[in-house]
Amino acid sequence: MSIKYISVLLISLVSGIAFSQSKESESCDSIKELLDLSTDAMYSYEYNKAIDYSLNLIELAEEEKDYYHLYHGYNNLGITYDELYDTIRAKESYENALKYAKIVENDTLLWWAYNNLGNMFTSNKQTIDQGFAYYDKAIKAASNLEDADSRATPLMNKGWTHLYLEEYDEAFPYLVQVEKLVEDIKDPYMLSQVASLFGTYYLGKENLEESKKYYEKAIKIAERDSLYYEAVTAYDGYAEALFKNNEFKEAYNALDKYIEYDAELYEKEKLEQMESAQARFETKRYRENLEIAKREQKYKDEVIAKSQQNSIIMIISLIVMLFFIILLVRNNNSRKKLISQLKNKNSELFSAKEEAERLSMLKSQFFSTVSHELRTPLYGVVGLTSLLLDDKSLKKHESDLKSLKFSADYLLALINDVLQMNKMESKQVKLENVPFNLHELILSIVNTFEFTRLQNKNKVHYNIDENVPQNLIGDPVRLSQILMNLVGNAVKFTENGNIYINVELQAKVEDRAIIYFEVKDDGIGIPKSKQKLIFEEFSQLKPSNYNYQGTGLGLPIVKRLLQLFESQIHLKSKEGEGSVFCFSLSLKEDKSSTKKVGFAHEVYLDNLKEKQKILIVDDNRINQVVTRRILEKQNFECVVVGNGVEAIERVTAMDFDLILMDLNMPGINGMETTQRIRNLSKDVPIVALTAVEIEEVRNEIFAAGMNDIIVKPYDIERFYQTIKRNLNANLETSSRN
């Protein structure tokens, strides 16, 4: 642990206790007790307890709107994560602490927060400049305080960082300022640290005499006041200065003192985690220093007298062996402790893994329940709105109805995006291989965005290369999701512009076609700096002149779905000039298909007899009305029942051409109802009509004897298409029999 971290820890401990006492009248006993427990655990290296106490403190302080203790909760949490080398959580906690320090408007809290962030960012050479900026803010905040310790600490940390970077001239002014401040308060801890830093400065400037003088001063103060850590730091630098000055005997004596104080530091503070790192550091330093000493001594002996060479080499060898033996013993002890710690950590990780798996299962169940509970009422909203749009008597309300349907579709898209991301994170999404018509798929996507296109005054152009096969085998659902997300983004971020959908054949390899898809717009474009960010979850491009809504999941879903296709998304964009998203897929050509291009409801009556009779099994009255009215519009005869028992009775009493079966019903559910109907040797097609995520129940649905699945709320064209497909299949089966 560096000087700058130690200084902040000790000062925040003392000052935190003082502030707790000064705020006693403003906080309840439980909040103060949690702060004390959190602080005690943190400085006793009981990090698990420190995290628990800090989180409880934060929760209670949030309830009480106690921003002062919210600061201390997040600050303690940040320090604890910092000690555990969890830099991501530490940074997040420190930033939260800074937020509440600004609310409280307390200069002491502000300089702590800025100083902690400065320590974090200066620990990584790539973020040094950010760290210095935070140090400057800490220095400015502390300058308003009368407490010399507070004013000195950020100055000392910035000087220490310059020394660490070997920027000795830049460090010197800060060291001088700190030296003047600590002389007034006569704080032995700060005096010892400052003397050590001056020793480091002069050591870097090759002024060995001055370096030794300051190290000796630091050692004197540290030994007088039993400051073990400062003694270790000072003796370490002092030994290096002596080695450089060819004072080898004194250097070895300094190293002995270094080892002595290091051992006492270990015993007094019980720093098990620091002990291992310190042991490795000592091993490296001792080896380097002893090798230097051996080479220097050998050279000196050759100059003085070659006759003494063998004796000196023997002595040095014995010393080296002695040091190695000591180090091996210490390393062995450290290794045993580390193995014990590793076993404990493994046990904790195993428990955490089990808990994570349990929570993941609960999350999946929750998403499944949310999916069903939201999609069921949305089915009624989308279905009734679609029916009302077709009612010519409501022509004057057409604009309002379109807005209502757009809002429902938008809400459904949000639900589907969140559920889709959850399934992909759980690796539940798998590609299907089913026949589909590419031209019909593109036309459906264009039609879907008609309302949004008109709202933003855009024009949508699409071009499909005549060489692209119309009928393919693949996963049309996932391909539709990819294209709808890309087109949806283009429509949303373009106003009074154009959207182009291009589909071209790149190559043919045997029975497979490599097809190039491109979605282009002339909208606001994407800055170069943001082009990687937009493919991350919950990220959005938010220019100052626009206000776009959404979850920020569309493009991440596109990226993950294309990975399933073993492809990847490519982006070309310039801010203010539009964007181009493109990708290529290898799809198998379906040479057996004779499908007609167009929407399903335009052709579904082909080859069907008049007045087809359909049984609707659904316990939701609104859903019953929607499904029945959609079917009756196309001249179907419908019978509606509200549970499985009634459905079995109706099937026993009369014949139906098709059954639409809800899954979740009171009494016997859709699965059991289907099984009982199949036991009656009925060949009637049964189609599941459900709001449940089909990936979770697909196998169970088909195992129960159902022929197909329609997910609520459904697209009416796909609904008619599924009905037609199953009725046609039933007609073909009947004709063969």
From TrEMBL:
Report the leader peptide range. 1-20
Enzyme Commission number: 2.7.13.3
Q: Which residues carry this modification: 4-aspartylphosphate?
A: 662
Ranges for the TPR repeats = 192-225
- Report the enzyme's class at the first EC level: transferase
Q: Where is the Response regulatory domain positioned along the sequence? A: 613-727
Q: Which residues form the Histidine kinase domain?
A: 369-589
The protein's UniProt keywords, in alphabetical order, are: Kinase, Membrane, Phosphoprotein, Signal, TPR repeat, Transferase, Transmembrane, Transmembrane helix, Two-component regulatory system
The domain of life is: Bacteria
Pfam families listed in its UniProt record: HATPase_c, HisKA, Response_reg, TPR_8
Catalytic reaction(s) noted: ATP + protein L-histidine = ADP + protein N-phospho-L-histidine
SUPFAM superfamilies in UniProt = ATPase domain of HSP90 chaperone/DNA topoisomerase II/histidine kinase, CheY-like, Homodimeric domain of signal transducing histidine kinase, TPR-like
What is the protein name given in its UniProt record?
histidine kinase
Record the organism.
Salegentibacter agarivorans
